[in-house]
Design a protein that fits this description.
This protein is mainly α. The protein is built from 22 helices and no strands.
Length: about 525
């Protein structure tokens, strides 16, 4: 809930920043802004080696086991490694910025901007490492706080600099400065937390190499997986830069920004599931692991699938209301992009399970499969069909990897997958989306904002009715949700009101049957 709340605030602020940047820069300027961030994104791929994942897992594990000395040692040496690595990569990016602008981006005039944004290589690496430490220590409130801080600094500075006439450079300067400020503040907080453990920690000595080997041994398969997927993400942007115009890239990026609405749900859940699965012993607690797996899949899909479908239904109203009618292609791109989120919830639980039980080698092989399928598809389909081909390649490669991963979890680990329950969730969501689209299509003359409110009201009401009617949730699920959300005073009254309605629908269904 800390991650969700912080993520929601950060996303709202970031969304406002994106609206300001996109509206002031326009499709072409926003496309150029996005292209400038490709090069530091490529260098960020090589700054981890799995240390972030290892910090999440072993800080959580050693903290529960009471090994404070190991916790302090991992924090100290993990930060030292990240600092040295990021500084080395920053120097390369800074010194060769003109070469990279010409031969990687195909934009000879962007050398100065690439040189400036190379600062991200240091401070974004630091920011991500800070969040990993906070999650591993179960200090989710600090992870949420620096995320909000980064978003606030970005929106304030980027808006100010663009208004003052700095254009694309102003937007990039606000983006870079936000990570500098959040990184410095987060480092001070980590140092205070670190001091709580340092009293029982020995000096640096040979621990640096020992800890580094320990973390890399666990995290390198995950790093390799992340490297493949991150390179794939950057490769997608490069291919767009090669075969499409700045205008189309701006439309694609504008559509992608709305996916941050979904990341508010995805990131907190996936971040929490990894350390949660890490605390289980698969051999001794097999039945509990399976139970936790089934609950995770069910509750993630109950939230993520309807939200994804709702965004797809109202894509036109969202884009035109926020960015204006000049982004003519963005609504169609957004509708296609949300298809990935229809199955992403299952993949997120599968990945967290495999990483949590220590089978990072399987995660690597699954991501390698996705990479090998996606790269040729991205190149060929984007070359012939532009942004549409790119999105199709993303959907196909991700779904293939999910099917293989789910099969491994079911067959090799004996984890049961409740297909009927999952299909019921999809059925309730699809019926709600169809009803919402039909009703709002009758009121389109009243404007985008009216359509959005009406769509939300129809979708929410129909979904709340259909979920218990089709059997996607039962009384036990509602009791679980009440126990979970009842701990949060601000949410409890609203959640209890919805759950009472759900109980009433269940009672009505049972009396009719």
């Amino acid at each position: 809930m800390f991650l969700f709340t912080g993520g929601t605030v950060a996303t709202v602020v970031s969304a406002f920043a994106s609206i300001v940047i996109t509206r002031f820069l326009g499709p072409d300027g926003y496309g150029l802004y996005s292209i400038c961030l490709i090069v530091p994104g490529l260098f960020l791929l090589f700054a981890d080696f799995g240390v972030n994942s290892a910090l999440v897992k072993y800080l959580a594990q050693f903290r529960v086991e009471g090994e404070k000395a190991r916790v302090a040692s991992l924090i100290r040496n993990g930060f030292l490694f990240k600092l040295l690595t990021s500084l080395f990569l920053f120097l390369i990016c800074f010194l060769f910025s003109d070469f990279l602008a010409v031969y990687v981006l195909g934009r000879p005039g962007l050398g100065f901007l690439v040189r400036f944004v190379s600062l991200l290589v240091v401070f974004q690496v630091l920011f991500i490492c800070l969040r990993s430490v906070f999650v591993g220590l179960d200090r989710m409130e600090f992870s949420a706080a620096i995320s909000v801080l980064q978003s606030v600094v970005k929106v304030v500075l980027a808006t100010l600099l663009i208004v003052l006439g700095f254009g694309v450079f102003g937007a990039l300067a606000g983006h870079v400065a936000s990570f500098v400020v959040a990184g410095v503040v987060g480092s001070l907080i980590v140092y205070r937390v670190y001091r709580e453990y340092v009293e029982q920690s020995s000096g640096l000595g040979s621990e640096f190499l020992r800890d580094l080997k320990f973390m890399v041994r666990f995290g390198f398969p995950l790093f390799s997986s992340s490297l493949l997927l991150s390179f794939l993400s950057q490769f997608q942007m490069l291919v767009l830069a090669w075969f499409t115009s700045d205008f189309e890239i701006g439309n694609f990026r504008a559509a992608s920004n709305f996916l941050s609405l979904l990341s508010v749900l995805v990131v907190p859940i996936s971040t929490a599931l990894f350390p949660a699965f890490s605390k289980f012993n698969l051999e001794d607690e097999g039945s509990e692991v399976e139970r936790f797996f089934l609950f995770s899949v069910r509750y993630v899909l109950l939230i993520l699938v309807p939200v994804a479908l709702f965004v797809g239904v109202v894509s036109r109203d969202l884009v035109f209301l926020v960015y204006g009618r000049s982004f003519v292609s963005a609504p169609f791109y957004l509708t296609l992009l949300v298809v990935m989120y229809l199955y992403m919830g299952v993949g997120m639980v599968v990945s967290s399970f495999l990483n949590g039980v220590g089978r990072t080698d399987i995660t690597f092989r699954l991501n390698l499969l996705r990479f090998l399928v996606a790269v040729p598809l991205v190149f060929v389909l984007t070359m012939f069909y532009g942004v549409l081909g790119l999105i199709v390649s993303m959907v196909v490669s991700g779904f293939l990897s999910l099917i293989c991963g789910l099969g491994i979890v079911v067959q090799r680990f004996g984890i049961r997958f409740d297909v009927r329950c999952v299909l019921k969730i999809y059925l309730a969501s699809l019926l709600s989306a169809g009803l919402s689209f039909f009703v709002t299509s009758l009121f389109s003359p009243f404007g985008y904002l009216v359509d959005l409110f009406l769509s939300f009201a129809v979708f929410l009401f129909s979904y709340l009715v259909l979920v218990p009617v089709v059997g996607a949730v039962g009384e036990g699920d509602l009791n679980n949700l009440r126990d979970i959300f009842g701990r949060f005073r601000l949410l409890a009254p609203f959640v209890n009101f919805l759950l009472r309605f759900e109980f009433w629908i269940l009672k009505l269904c049972s009396s009719c049957s």
